[in-house]
Amino acid sequence: MPLWLEAGAWGLIAASALLLGSALGWFIYFPPKVVAYIMAFGSGVLFAALSFDLVDGALAEAGMGWIAGGFMLGAAGFSLINHWLNTSGVKHRKRSHSQQPAANNTGVAIAAGTLLDGLPESIAIGLLVASGGKLSLATIAAIFISNIPEALSSTAGMRRAGHGGWFMLRLWGGMAVLSGVFAIIGAVFFGGAPGHIKALITCIAAGGIFAMLVETMIPEAFAETHELSGLIAAAGFIAAVTMQALET
């Protein structure tokens, strides 16, 4: 299988959790705390993935100037765009559906927020696959888990706003396909780049993921779990480290 196609497949698999989360939100009521527990656990797993798979791998390719610069650039880029999107009603796009805004125009805003959240993850997947980097099960699991509560809570809110099942299928299916496309872009445009450029792009993606965790997932998990969020996130972190240890 060509590397670009493999990258697209992994990107699509990781983002397919959006469809799963949407189906769960459509058919089943989940208490807000359960959604928050999943979010906190996914945050811990994703922290481990970006630390060991992305930043650690980039350190082998470039110096700290490239690493720090790329990481801060990715974090700044996410924060600026996220700040702008928050004015469109998606500040709490990952919040449990009991508190999710249900305005009729929320669908497009939620899609934009989801695309922003998934862009650095997909680019990182494509780059890791194309460059022969370490794409571990923990990385795919982390991205998969982090996508479930967002689609779950958002679907319940948009259903209350009157959106139908076909709208949900198009929205989340389109986001999953776009994630696969961005993974292909990461593989095609950056997979063959010099080592320091790959490290830069990888760290830009890692910085974006880090900012996403701090600005969206962790606050929304803490809103329901409070002090338990740290413990559950720690369990997710250890689970990811364990998966990586078993793969080596």
Short synopsis of the structure:
This protein has 248 residues and is mainly alpha-helical. The protein has helices spanning 3-15, 17-27, 32-59, 64-90, 106-130, 137-160, 165-190, 195-225, 228-247. The two termini are 24 Å apart.
Blueprint (SSEs and pairs):
Elements (H helix, E strand, L loop, with lengths): L2 H13 L1 H11 L4 H28 L4 H27 L15 H25 L6 H24 L4 H26 L4 H31 L2 H20 L1
Helix pairs in contact: 1-5, 1-6, 1-7, 2-6, 2-7, 3-6, 3-8, 3-9, 4-5, 4-8, 5-6, 5-7, 5-8, 6-9
How would you describe the overall organization of this protein?
The chain has helices spanning 3-15, 17-27, 32-59, 64-90, 106-130, 137-160, 165-190, 195-225, 228-247. The model is unreliable at 97-105 (pLDDT under 50). The longest helix has 31 residues, at 195-225. By secondary structure, the chain is mainly alpha-helical. The protein has 9 helices and no strands. The protein has one domain (3-247). Helix content is 83%, strand content 0%. It is globular, with a radius of gyration of 17 Å.
Mean pLDDT: 84
Give a quick account of the main beta sheet: strands, pairing sense, barrel closure. Answer: none
Radius of gyration: 17 Å
Envelope shape? globular
Q: Helix content range of the residues, please?
A: over 70%
Q: Measure the end-to-end span.
A: 24 Å
Protein name: ZIP family zinc transporter
Keywords: Membrane, Transmembrane, Transmembrane helix
Transmembrane segments: 7-28, 34-52, 64-85, 123-146, 167-190, 196-216, 228-246
